[in-house]
Structures are given as structure tokens and as C-alpha cells.
Design brief:
By secondary structure, this protein is α/β, with parallel strands linked by helices. It has helices at about 30-40, 65-70, 90-100, 140-145, 150-155, 160-180, 195-200, 265-275, 280-285, 295-305, 315-320, 335-340, 345-360; strands at about 10-15, 55, 80, 105-115, 200-205, 205, 215-225, 235-245, 285-290, 370-380, 385-395. The radius of gyration is 20 Å and the shape is globular.
Length: about 400
């Protein structure tokens, strides 16, 4: 059963996003100011004092709403701090949208921020909550956990490992090519396929260029009721569907789980499509921003999101189906792979790309007449994760 949803009841009227990357000279507060200021400048009809409430998403760059209220010198406004692994920015957006749809507030802001570079975070070492020690997956780093997708997919679908390697390489090559067209991306240089394949290995067959970057950055969205949106901008972005699924985290101990799918993604996508009235995602969706934390992740997501048939995504990738000029452009802004991954900001950064595309402001990567966009944000690891899917549109109805 799907959620009832809030289709066309709320709209985004302003967005902002910093450049992602190494901001050694900028604090989390600086990044929050920069992202929110861009959103306010895009929406001159809304001042900071007009916003009724804020939602802040951050994994480790703040412990309460004070992180945002201090940075913006807010006048005793409610600020809710949320965290949901790498889906943290999406969670801030989801909760902010529901607050407006419920009628509790007229104007709200969702913000995500992360300052990772000078924290020493590498994406390898992690701090897990206390447990009884029986969770086998806790001993695996993220690259190790996601590297299991590669051999598992080859085994289930009889794919030659050389073909799978070529598809993974193509994902990295594509996303870096897209990021090279994006002035706010962390990595703005294309890479050759030879360079991807010869890069030092991190885990399994995953090399350096198969892994997303560790970044600093922030992003923000101003959200109002849909019927009020045209009071603030002539090109709002309408929310069609928002879905979150948290799995039972049984993958590592479930003999039926084979590391070729994310059941949480399948469930959240099905829910979001139902809310949005999407029945044929591979043809109805104009662009998709997905959680390409590792190259085999993007490949599997193409099938879980309904963009490719089971066991066929690797062929579609090699055929160019998901390139800028393909039938369904995926990660036109470079994705996590090239744009970077400041955890609390990534979900909102994905929405920022849809915002730019709908407004015709995406520069060298601008698509022709995009109507519906999808964002997908994943937190956790194969067999134990949370998944968020949104569908947003350029028009009502």
C-alpha cells in the first residue's frame, strides 16, 4: 500500500547550493549562509523573517537546530535538526514539505550541510552505535559492502565480469563528463576510461574512480503552498511524490538476499510513483538524480527504479541510455561521483539540479524541455538501508 501523498500541494520557489569540494577556509556556518542566501536571492518576495520554520539536515556538522539558527541569526524560529544517514538532506526536505501540506506553516526552508574535509572523515572508518556484536556487516567499510554488488550481479545474471567492469567504468566516465560541465562540482575534469580502470583499488574491483568524493557543502530549498507559488516565482517546482522506506536490516543474515537489488529502493520508488501518478518511469521521467555512491550502485538502481529490465542495466549503460543525450539522462550534474557527497546536503543538491533544469538554467548540461524529475537518496548499505525517492515537476497536474 502506498502513501496518500501530497501531490501538487506544495512547491519549491527558491533554491541555493554552494560549490561542493574542499572548503578549508569556510566553516559550516559560512556554507549555510551561502546556500540560504542564494535561495533568498532567487525568491525576493520571501525574506528570512518571513520563513515560519526550518528543517536542518546534517550527519555530523551540528547537534541541534542551533547550528542553523546561530548561522542565520534567526529570531527564535523553530528549527528541527534531522539525520537519516546519507538520505539526511532528503529527510529535511520531506519533513519541511509535509509541514506546509499539513497547513501548519505557510513558508518553510529545508537546509542540508556537511563539513567533512577538515573533520578527517575519509569514508572508510566509521563509528557505529553499540550492538551485541552479531551484525556481521558492521565490520565492512562502505566500499567493501558495495563492492559485493559487482560479483553478485555477474553471478545472478551470467554477465561476463569484463562486461560488468566496462559498465561500471562507463558510469564513472559519464558522471565525470557531466560534472566537467558543472561549475559547482567538486571534480570538474573528465576522466578517460583507461584512467578509471587503472586507478588504485579500494575494495574488490572498486577503484578510486568507482567511489564518490568526500566533500564540504550546503544546499537549501524554500517551500510554500502550491496555490501561492506564483506569488514568488514564475517557474516553481511542484512536488509530486515523496517516499521513504527503512528496511528491516536483515540482508547480511537473510539467505534469500543476494546483493543484486535494494528492496528499500524498490518499495520507495513504487510508493513515489503511485503518489505522482507515474506508470511508466523510463519514459515519463525526464531526468534522474540518483545516489551513485559507487559505480555498481548506479547500475543496480537503474533496475530498482524501473529504468531498465532486470539483468539488462549494464547493456543500457554501455548503449548510452543514461547519458545527457540518452533516453533518460541520469546524474546530469555529475552525481555524487563528480559533484561530491557532503552527506547532509546531497539530497537537496539533487533537487537543486531538477530546479535548474526546469528553469532552463543548467548551462552546458541543459536538457530540452524537462517535465518530471526524480531524485533518489540512499543511506546505509546493501541489505540494510533507508531509501528516499522524490518525483518533482515543472508544472501542475
Amino acid at each position: 500500500m502506498s502513501s496518500k501523498g501530497i501531490r501538487d500541494r506544495v512547491a519549491v520557489v527558491g533554491m541555493g547550493c554552494t560549490r561542493f569540494g574542499e572548503h578549508w577556509d569556510r566553516s559550516a556556518e559560512d556554507l549555510l549562509v551561502d546556500a540560504t542566501q542564494e535561495a533568498f536571492l532567487a525568491t525576493p518576495g520571501i525574506r528570512r523573517s518571513d520563513v515560519d520554520a526550518y528543517w536542518l539536515g546534517t550527519l555530523g556538522s551540528g547537534q541541534s537546530g542551533l547550528t542553523l539558527s546561530k548561522a542565520l541569526s534567526l529570531d527564535y524560529k523553530p528549527v528541527t535538526r534531522v539525520e537519516n544517514y546519507c538520505a539526511t538532506g532528503s529527510e529535511a526536505f520531506r519533513n519541511a514539505c509535509y509541514a506546509v501540506a499539513s497547513g501548519a506553516y505557510d513558508r518553510v526552508m529545508a537546509v542540508g550541510v556537511e563539513k567533512l574535509k577538515d573533520s578527517g572523515f575519509s569514508g572508510l572508518l566509521r563509528s557505529d552505535p553499540p550492538s551485541d556484536g552479531t551484525a556481521a556487516e558492521l565490520s565492512l567499510t562502505a566500499p567493501a559492502a558495495f563492492s559485493l554488488l559487482d560479483p553478485a550481479y555477474c553471478a545472478r545474471y551470467g554477465v561476463d565480469p569484463a562486461d560488468m567492469r566496462a559498465a561500471m567504468t562507463h558510469v564513472a566516465w559519464k558522471n565525470h563528463a557531466n560534472g566537467a560541465r558543472n561549475p559547482k562540482a567538486q571534480f570538474r575534469s573528465g576522466v578517460t576510461k583507461e584512467k578509471v580502470e587503472k586507478a588504485p583499488k579500494v575494495a574488490g574491483r572498486l577503484g578510486v574512480f568507482d567511489c564518490s568524493g568526500v566533500s564540504d557543502g550546503a544546499a537549501a530549498a524554500l517551500i510554500v503552498r502550491a496555490e501561492d507559488a506564483l506569488d514568488y516565482t514564475d517557474r516553481p517546482m511542484y512536488v509530486k511524490g515523496l517516499a521513504l522506506a527503512a528496511g528491516p536490516a536483515l540482508g547480511a543474515s537473510d539467505p534469500e538476499y543476494d546483493y543484486t537489488t535494494f528492496p528499500e529502493v524498490v518499495r520507495s520508488a513504487r510508493d513515489a510513483f503511485s503518489q505522482a501518478g507515474v506508470t511508466d518511469p523510463r519514459h515519463e521521467i525526464s531526468l534522474a538524480e540518483v545516489h551513485d555512491c559507487f559505480t555498481p550502485t548506479e547500475l543496480v538502481l537503474m533496475e530498482d527504479l524501473g529504468f531498465a529490465e532486470r539483468g539488462q542495466a549494464w547493456k543500457d549503460i554501455l548503449d548510452g541510455a543514461f547519458e545527457l543525450g540518452g533516453r533518460l539522462p541520469v546524474n546530469p550534474d555529475g552525481g555524487l561521483k563528480s559533484f561530491g557527497h557532503p552527506v547532509g546536503a546531497s539530497g537537496l543538491r539533487m533537487l537543486y539540479e531538477c530546479w535548474l533544469q526546469f528553469r532552463g538554467e543548467a548551462g552546458q548540461r541543459q536538457l530540452a524541455d524537462p517535465r518530471l524529475g526524480l531524485t533518489h537518496n540512499l543511506g546505509g548499505r546493501p541489505g540494510s538501508c533507508v531509501s528516499f525517492v522524490s518525483v518533482v515537476g515543472a508544472q501542475l497536474g
